[in-house]
Amino acid sequence: MPTFSINDRENMSIALELAAQGMLGVKGNPMVGCVITKDDKIIAKGYHKTFGEEHAEINALKQIKYKAKDATLYVTLEPCSHFGKTPPCAQAIIDSGVRKVVICMLDPNPLVSGDGVALLEDAGIDVEVGLLEDQAYKLNRGFIKRMKTSMPFVTCKIAMSVDGKTSMASGESKWITSEAARQDVHKLRANNQAIITGSGTVIDDNPSMTVRLENSRAIPLRVVIDSKDKIEDKTLNIFSDEAPTLILNSTNTKILESGKLDLTDALTQLGDKGINNVLLESGPGLIGAMINNSLIDEFIIYTAPILMGSDAKSMANLNIKNMQDKIELNISDIRVIGNDIKTTATIKC
CA torsion sign, 196 to 199 to 201 to 206? Predict the structure, then answer.
């Protein structure tokens, strides 16, 4: 394992911060940042801003007119080695005269992983991989999952009472959580390329499923799982012009013997569209089905300090009869949002 200095870590931290700025622009591409140093001083910085345009390394090299003799280049993802929408970054790095390249992690695409490093090393450049790899992985977890499984990373958002209820028996659910928590949900939506819900939620609640934040440019795709082809009313808010909408039903998605939509096929279709991260906001039926099919990667649960009673609907329809069949969660973060508690967790394997 290579040994990294404090300066290495500081420079790569800056590259990771730069990479995150590309969240809304890179679409299906990974977020990547780059820092170039010489004599322990930063001489150029860049990040991948827009899908189909220059990558992070090129945006940084442009600032110094591609002249980086004996410099060290820090980049959060292995430089590409193939012609895609843009020329290969690895060759541009070689041509610039860079002496050393430090990389957070290899490209997760199994067809190209390691090729960029090999090209750099064959040119005599010193390459070190693994600096702040966990942070780079977290930043691009959706892209990484899509490269490995063809499906996006799925975050399930739930707003519930202390007794685990998400709506009254009548379907009434406005509002369980505080205004502060609801604003936090809009930030969550802005960080995802698609929002998924079920036809029952659309018919009962008529949600808009849009990002309502001042100055936000995020416009996630609205996706409705409609296994029984119920969605016909084009005046529903889901069909407003604020954001695009995709209805997944029996005409465009595989149907299982149970009559339900094949949720793996539904997610694969989103992956085929280059969608890396999706937010699931739905009723207990779809959430339960997603859990049963092991399709949820992360839960973000907002718990309000209220009780809604035994007749109210639970967060997920799960047929669990015995304590030994309980589903355990690993909690990674707990914080207070307004009057509510926000819990981030994953299902324990």
Answer: positive
Q: Is 57 considered catalytic here?
A: yes
Residue 46 has pLDDT above 80, yes or no: yes
Radius of gyration of the chain (CA): 23
What predicted TM-score, i.e. pTM, was given to this entire model? 0.91
Q: Per residue in 283-323, pLDDT tens? A: 999 999 999 999 999 999 999 999 999 999 999 998 889 99
Bridge partners for 179 per DSSP: none
Q: At what angle do helices 6-20 and 56-63 cross, to 10 degrees?
A: 110
Q: Is the pLDDT of residue 85 over 70?
A: no
* Distances from the Cα of 54 to the Cα of 25, 46, 47, 50, angstroms: 12, 10, 9, 8
Which of 54, 57, 78, 281 is labelled catalytic?
A: 57
Q: In 3D, which of 342, 327, 250, 334 has the Cα closest to residue 296? A: 327
